[in-house]
Amino acid sequence: MKKEKVSIKLAVQSILELQKEGKGANLLGIGPMSANLLQASFELAKDYDFPLMFIASRNQVDMDELGGGYVNGWNQETFMEAIRKSAAKTDFDGLYYVCRDHGGPWQRDKERNDHLPEAEAMELGKKSYLADIESGFDLLMIDPTKDPFEVGKVVPLETVIKRTVELIEYCEQERVARNLPEIGYEVGTEETNGGLTSTEVYEQFVIRLQEELGKRNLPMPTFIVGQTGTLVRKTNQVGTFNFKNAYELAEMAKKYGVGLKEHNGDYLDDVSLLEHVPSNITATNVAPQYGTEETRAYLKLADVEQKLKEYGLIEEPSEVRDVLLLHAIKSERWRKWMLEEQKNLTVDEIFKDDKLSAEILDIAGHYTFNDDEVKDEIDKLYENLRKVNIDGQRFVIEHIKRPIRDYAEAYNLKGATTRIINNLQSLVC
Prior knowledge:
Elements: H1 8-20, E1 27-30, H2 35-48, E2 52-56, H3 76-89, E3 96-103, H4 109-113, H5 118-135, E4 139-142, H6 157-177, E5 184-188, H7 199-215, E6 223-225, E7 232-233, E8 236-237, H8 243-255, E9 259-262, H9 270-279, E10 283-286, H10 288-310, H11 320-331, H12 347-351, H13 354-364, H14 372-386, H15 392-410, H16 416-428
Parallel strand pairs: 1-2, 1-10, 2-3, 3-4, 4-5, 5-6, 6-9, 9-10
Antiparallel strand pairs: 7-8
């Protein structure tokens, strides 16, 4: 069985089988914050032999007519092209999956802030999904829960199911009409103010979904998202991984041939990471942590640059720190990750507080990597360091690899691609 022919659905089914033999793994969904992150991911996955999942939200990657994405200005087609180029550059011949994270209505900030009516929001969500499908995405997360008319509330279960089934039906019809390969679906939400937290509600959701999808001859999802206790604020994991809840949810999902997906898996400590494989979670999403690591790498290089100026080896250092800081604060994308009492601070208030400004830079620097002024200063930084025989970009890539490597080792991902494929071959035989 060729690696490139293994669908994400088959890969997850193989992992569920491998879990019974004590050979399972916890897949890692990587938020695609930059081209550097793509390269770091491919290099490490090649060395360790594990499948990659790139998870792009609609704010990160979307159609130009819907506003595009803040990550390199990528739309679906240019995102796919960047991934293919990075795979080729690193001679990667393993498994990788391109995934839509949080697709659907109101998933762009503007759509939610504009309080678009449900019908209009659903149509825009469908338009975005169609571009995903035509571009070759492998997995679509169906998430109709960012309802601006239900702020602070849990969207009723039946409403979530109704919208979810409608969107899966649309996507399947469009996929089949184009004679495209099978794709996987991810459903549910990681919200902590209710959502799919208890095994009872979780199973009720799965049963109702199975009923409604079955009536329409639609596939069951590949993943269902459940709450495992994780929660990210600023650049910290402020939640507590709940092994018991994770294990029970994973076992519940497995009864229906579905994998449990965890969101907000950033900044987990070693103990929590090591609990994941025995919990039988099948995948975890990590995104802002890798962007933060890249920002920190640039700031370390800027420190080196300043030292070398003192030694007379660099005449005119870049202004990468100041420019990143300015653009990070002005982006206001940090609001999502702040403590409740800080979410409504003004930009002026941030600028007046040096400590808070530094925190914002750490949190939101990665949102600005595609800004022209930021790119210019990064290029200048690289060029200054190149003249003194320091490969700045290589340092950045290796810096990003560090947390990915920590997760890959704890999640038993070494050799996972070979195990998945060998298991599928044995099932076919």
